[in-house]
Amino acid sequence: MSKDCFISYQGKRYSVPFRYVGKELKIKETLDHHLEVYDSYECIAKHPLMTGKARDHINLEHYKGLHTTTVGLPTHSRLQSSDIEVERRSLHMYEQLEGGDQE
Question: What is a single Pfam family found in this protein's UniProt entry (predicted)?
């Protein structure tokens, strides 16, 4: 899994709880068109498989408890044609989440 709490599957990105960053995970495509993500013991995330132009599926619960900055970063959300809400953020935010922005 990447440092930004996403896994990639068939050119799409799906969020995973932040505590699994850097861990080896297993994925399973289900018959009901969902993607399930497993650690060694249990299913840790489930997303509907995306189709069309949507590229990211984010579950904001996966970021709860993650260290945040005192300076809020602007975000906005946009409803995709497939009725999936996806947030768009500056890449600067990810640098701060990684701790790479040590000014």
Answer: Mu-transpos_C_2
